[in-house]
Design a protein that fits this description.
Layout: E1 4-10, H1 18-32, E2 35-41, H2 44-49, E3 53-55, H3 56-59, H4 63-70, H5 91-103, E4 108-113, H6 115-130, E5 136-141, H7 157-175, E6 182-188, H8 195-198, E7 213-215, H9 223-234, E8 239-245, E9 264-265, E10 271-272, H10 276-288, E11 291-296, H11 310-328, E12 334-342, E13 347-354, H12 379-385, E14 397-398, E15 401-402
Parallel strand pairs: 1-2, 1-4, 4-5, 5-12, 6-8, 6-11, 7-8
Antiparallel strand pairs: 2-3, 9-10, 12-13, 14-15
Helix pairs in contact: 1-4, 1-11
Family: Belongs to the phosphofructokinase type A (PFKA) family. PPi-dependent PFK group II subfamily. Clade 'B2' sub-subfamily.
Domain Phosphofructokinase: 7-302
Site (Important for catalytic activity): 142
Length: 413
């Protein structure tokens, strides 16, 4: 029987778990004994257009190397921010890609990424059908923002949520040592969806009630109510800690940092927010004249393998395995998904959905999971989040620091 050959790519922003999905795909391809070559695109679809790829089957043919890859953060294959054009606008791009597929006898194509990456899967799958190509195109979800439609949650989110909750707890311990009026504002990633910011509530323990206030982009943000909320909390405690999504908007739908001179956009036209915490810091100081500090977690919440969720990494590996099984069954134009069976004990199933119903859409927090005051989350949201951060990951260390997979192939000379 003719053997299969596949391409694997990674795209978008890095996470703790995306290499676990990559490892899951490689592992399943080798285990099946049905693949001659498992190729990896270097820097995603853009790298493939430049004929940059590597044979992963040769590099990860032993369990030790694969285990190290599973426990390495960011993206072993590198990434890109490339919006694949429509075929009608740029047929040459598709002809180049499919010529490469034909030369290498590609039968399966796996792309690990977020919303825009699923758009790439949808476009390539549609083009393949139009030319009667038998290649199976499968999307594997990835994003710390947890904003992909069609899946209960996304690989990478649980570990980022665990980092946010842990950081919030450590900030609370740091702030508790002084007996003076103070406000600490923690700005957390989330352009339009507040899942990560909501995860800050997981920091609450028997001796810590922070964050005292949580503001999410799913509901309008009022600066006056924000100040009134702080005033109320000051009545019973001196030290206030606030979690705020970078993408909160006012009643007119305008981003709080929209007027910032530092506002930029990425390759897809998305606003790169920077300064929401600083805007609020200035506002609070002017109103209360107390000690105010804003902290922006920024990229630190994306690749913190030292505080990764074991559940997240195991699920990410398994969804990579499931992707291979799905393509070998002949499915194409789909994204792998998690379907939650129950919370206690926590259980999920691995399935898939039409990528056209997922690409370019956003899954936001249901408004009913936000409290009536719009400054905290409900128990339902807490119960949804808590299973995703469970378990710790054993990291290998060398000379006192983590020992991750070698990514020297990503260096540009």
């Amino acid at each position: 029987m003719k053997k299969r050959n596949c391409f694997i790519g990674q795209s978008g922003g890095p996470t703790v778990a995306i290499n676990a999905s990559l490892a899951g795909i490689i592992h399943e391809c080798i285990k099946s004994q049905k693949f001659d070559h498992v190729y990896g695109m270097v820097n995603g679809i853009m790298g493939l257009l430049e004929s940059r790829y590597m044979d992963l089957g040769e590099l990860f043919n032993d369990s030790q190397a694969l285990e190290q890859l599973k426990h390495s953060p960011a993206m072993y294959l590198g990434s890109c921010r490339y919006k694949l054009p429509n075929y009608q606008d740029d047929p040459q791009t598709y002809e180049i890609l499919f010529h490469t597929f034909e030369q290498l006898h590609i039968t399966d194509f796996y792309y690990i990424g977020g919303n825009d990456s699923m758009d790439t899967v949808a476009k390539l799958s549609a083009y393949a059908k139009s030319i009667h190509s038998p290649i199976c195109f499968i999307g594997i979800p990835k994003t710390i923002d947890n904003d992909l439609m069609g899946t209960d949650h996304t690989p990478g989110f649980g570990s980022a949520a665990k980092y946010v909750a842990t950081s919030m707890l450590e900030i609370a311990y740091d702030s508790s040592i002084y007996k003076l009026n103070a406000v600490t504002i923690v700005e957390i990633m989330g352009r339009n969806a507040g899942w990560l910011t909501a995860a800050s509530a997981l920091a609450r323990t028997q001796c810590n009630e922070a964050p005292d206030l949580i503001y999410l982009p799913e509901v309008p943000f009022s600066t006056q109510k924000f100040l009134d909320d702080i005033r109320k909390v000051f009545r019973h405690k001196k030290n206030i800690i606030i979690a705020v999504s970078e993408g909160i908007k006012n009643e007119n739908g305008e981003y709080l940092d929209a007027d910032s001179k530092y506002t930029k956009r990425d390759a897809f036209g998305h606003v790169l927010h920077s300064g929401t915490g600083k805007v609020l810091e200035s506002l609070v100081y002017q109103e209360f004249k107390c000690k105010v500090r804003s902290i922006e977690l920024n990229v630190l919440q994306r690749c913190a393998m030292h505080i990764a969720s074991k559940v997240d990494l195991e699920e990410s590996f398994q969804i990579g395995q499931a992707a291979v099984q799905t393509s070998m069954e002949g499915h194409s134009g789909v994204m792998m998904t998690f379907q939650r069976v129950q919370n206690q004990p926590y259980q999920v199933e691995y399935t898939y959905k039409d990528v056209l119903k997922i690409a370019n859409l956003e899954q936001r927090i249901p408004v009913e999971w936000i409290n009536d005051e719009h400054n905290d989350i409900t128990q339902e949201l807490y119960d949804y989040l808590i299973p995703l951060i469970q378990g710790e990951v054993a990291i290998t260390y060398e000379n006192g620091i983590p020992c991750y997979s070698n990514i020297s192939h990503l260096r540009y000379k």
